[in-house]
Amino acid sequence: MTKRALISVSDKTGVTEFAKELVKLGYEIVSTGGTKRALEDAGIAVIGISEVTGFPECLDGRVKTLHPNVHAGLLAKRDNPEHMDKLSELNISTIDIVAVNLYPFKETIQKPNVTLAQAVENIDIGGPTMLRSAAKNYNDVCAICDPQDYQTVLQELSLGEITKKTKFYLMYKVFQHTAVYDSLIASYMAKVQGILYPEFITLAYQKVQDLRYGENPHQSAAFYKDILQTKGALTNAVQLQGKELSFNNINDTNGAIELVKEFERPTTVIVKHANPCGVATADTIFEAYQKAFAADSVSAFGGIVASNGIIDKNTAEKMASIFLEIVVAPGYTSEAKDALASKPNLRVLELADIASPPQSGELNAKKVLGGILLQGYDNKMIEQLNTVTQAQPSQEQLKDLLFAMKVVKHVKSNAIVVAKGECTLGIGPGQTNRIWAANAAIERGGAQVKGAVMASDAFFPFPDCVEVCAQAGINVIIQPGGSIRDQLSIDACNKHNIAMVFCGIRHFKH
User: Fold this and answer.
1) Closest C-alpha among 384, 440, 389, 449 to residue 415
2) 60, exposed or middle or buried, with CB in 10 Å at 0-12, 13-18, 19+?
3) How far, in Å, CA of 241 to CA of 341, rounded?
4) How far apart are CA 260 and CA 306, in angstroms?
């Protein structure tokens, strides 16, 4: 019995070469629409799908392969006499290979100003149905949804037949492929209807790379990206040099990128173990880097550096003078690249749209044992600035307050940031109570904290933080407010002539 391959692809990469080799191996080729024309133009003999079904393609091509003559030929078990007798009775030929990839739904919805009608028109029906039929009968039918698998199939056929192992693997790829396809459709339709948290969620991510290990060497890990690429995300970065990114590299660099997005003026962020250790804004990236490094030169060793401006030669030379894990920026001058190349293990990433904020509707996910937490991104800085004390902040102090609030938003809670001149002096991250966080930040800043400002990610439950500010010479505080004991902190500020500003919004980060 002559073997048949049904080929109907949207992505025509390598399809004519694949079909030509199948013909040489004795296969008849059945095809549809544009794929049929492409194969015929390449001089390949093709049986039209209508010759198989006895029914014309209709409804603008919406109905071509949804026919018993196709699906019976795919689903019949070759070792089941009743199945094979029924095919003979109905004069239906078996189909042994299906090469199908689907309408470009993802590419369609990523186009600017795409309409719902255009998106719906690019939902494939026949393609997934054929793939699923072929995959279900993987013992007898080879189902191919990825052009990269053409060569493997041809190599095995040249040796006699496609192995069961390969057919089973391709079956797995088909169901993964159609699951992702359906996930994109469902997610898009939810977005169109404004459904942020549907009853069921299916997340579609594509593997970027396997990682050597996770947070620790005994943990396995891999890195995945959202199939619908997000602007300004680490997954869009181009690695110019350096070693492969690790799990911790990726996690820490993402934190640095998210923080640097808060700033419009030239800013440099240095992150260590997922927390910023030095952040500064200045007139130039060179000055911002120097200030951020000086803010905590000890912790900067082995740190991650993110900048929202082009790295020049002078800045790169400063960076190359110490041990850093990663530098990420929107670009580098050629001289800067040369300077950084002196540290071949330094990972240098270029992320052109690093300043792009998270897209509207983007969700933040946290995996917990047996479930997942989803939430919108913390994309709001303040509700309303309200000075609640007798002392008032100056315009310069107000600028520092807003700077410090942008930083503390990205510090693990409980979090305190002390800053002056749009530069962090001390950061107190991840403490189990707020006074410890305040003490840590003040201790880190040393004598420089006199005349600085303090930002807190959440309200002061007690006036003890005000008291340590008074002792250190900090004379302006910003915090959300909202504690039932707010008045105690306000009274303490008035006692020590400290200005306190409520911003009305909390920024817990766990």
Assistant:
1) 440
2) exposed
3) 8
4) 7
For residue 114, CA distances in Å to 108, 188, 363 come to 7, 12, 22
Q: Provide the edge-to-edge strand list for the sheet that holds 47-48.
A: 47-48, 28-31, 4-9, 97-101, 142-144
| Cα gap 434→283, rounded to integer Å | 33
Q: Say how many C-beta atoms besides its own lie within 10 A of residue 350's C-beta.
A: 18
Query: Using H for helix, E for strand and C for coil, what is the string for 192-254?
Result: HCCCCCCCCCCCCEEEEEEECCCCCCCCCEEEEEECCCCCCCHHHCEEEECCCCCHHHHHHHH
Please provide the DSSP assignment of 19-66 as one string. Answer: HHHHHHTT-EEEE-HHHHHHHHHTT---EEHHHHHSS--BTTTTBSS-
* Structural domain containing residue 120: 4-192
**Structure token pair of residue 374:** 């989803």
Q: pLDDT tens digits, residue range 389-416?
A: 999 999 999 999 999 999 999 999 999 9
Is 492 within a domain? yes
Bridge partners, residue 347, by sequence: 326
Angle at 446 between CA 445 and CA 450, to 5 degrees: 85
CA distance linking residue 306 with residue 253, whole number of Å: 8
Considering the domain architecture, whether residues 326 and 391 belong to the same structural domain is answered as no
Q: Which of 6-15, 18-27, 49-58, 280-289 is most confident?
A: 280-289
Same domain, 431 and 493: yes
Residues 318 and 406 grouped into a single domain: no
Q: What is the pLDDT of residues 244-294, one digit of tens each?
A: 999 999 999 999 999 999 999 999 999 999 999 999 999 999 999 999 999
> Which CATH number goes with the domain that contains 443?
3.40.140.20
CA dist., res. 501 & res. 401, Å (int): 9
Residues 138-163: tens digit of each pLDDT: 999 999 999 999 999 999 998 989 99
Sign of torsion, CA 192 195 197 201? negative
pLDDT score, position 84: 85
Per the structure, the count of domains in the chain is 3
The three-state (H, E, C) secondary structure of 98-123, written as one string: EEEECCCHHHHHCCCCCCHHHHHHCC
**Could you give the residue numbers annotated as active site?**
136, 273
Task: Give the pair of three-digit tokens for residue 227.
Answer: 């199939």
Residue 96 to residue 139: CA distance in whole angstroms: 10
